[in-house]
Amino acid sequence: MDMNKFDLDTPCLVLDLEILEENLGKMQASANAAGKKLRPHAKTHKCSILAKKQLEKGAIGVCVAKVSEAEALVNSGVHGVLITGALAVERKVKRLAAFLRRSPSLMTVIDHPKNIDLLEKHLADHDLRIDVLVDIDIGLGRTGVSPDRGLELADFVMASDHLRLRGIQAYAGHVQHIQSYEDRRKASKESLGRASALFRRLQAKGTGCTIFSGSGTGTSDIDLSIPELTELQVGSYAVMDAEYMSIETAGSTALSDSFRPALTLLTSVVNVSHETHVTVDAGLKSLYRDGASPRVVTREYSGLRYDWFGDEYGMLSPAEGSHSLPKLGATLELVVSHCDPTVNQFDCFHIVRGDEVVDVWPIDLRGKSQ
Q: In the chain, where does DSSP find H-type helix?
């Protein structure tokens, strides 16, 4: 494309292809070595091209949060999709039924008898069947059913005509960003241990359950050692963000030593009227405000701190002592605070090798929130 990334209009998202490929390869190799499968979460990148790259590396499928995301991926030729949120509204089940025939490998989860009834009703109308996992709440309190009710729901599924029970899902989202490796290890082992016991009971009962899907980027190295877990739903590892960069791994190293940030945001200096700071053109509409602040990674300005400055703007100021400030019009590179919702604010990734822009990938699942 004969363009340097610093010539791109800002703010914009940049994805380093070499680092991306490295991250995808590392996680796949770790899963393979442990005898586990990968079903990465596409809600992170919301990009069918990137999902296909994960499949090419060896993933057995991908996860999505919403029916609309699943529909978009199926339309783009991606299969092995797992919808990780239970469907509690009739219109969503109708939408699923409309494209399920084109992707019989698609799965969803259930956490209430109503989910089962809705699926049974509308799949029967279309003579369709679907594989399901029972979603188990292991401490987050957001979705899922308690482990002690998992067997009951499994029985409901097995009594239905158009749902096939394949296993369970258990995601410990509340432990993914625990800073200390040892604290995170203990919390993840305890949380997934509840689901592991249920999975063993389901298998002993002769249900034919073969899938235990869970884990995340923050606990993937820990959860690989859990015998019952069969597949990992990691997402952020592919592109990384400031939230994940600082958490410890075994040996007290940072997670960013294993998975480097492939995703960055370019922003330009638009005001230099103050000696204490400069204003850049990336604010709340470009960077999702959650957890850690964005990090400046432009080498000569890595000592600058980003602060929120409104919808359209951010502030860069010296983090420690005196530090030179960038000039008006200068372009800087940031690691985003939280990758998933930041990605959802842009139409495309600018793909780079080094500083050269080599491609543009549409974020074609952007806005697929239904």
A: 17-33, 48-57, 67-75, 90-100, 113-125, 147-158, 181-204, 220-223, 242-245, 339-343
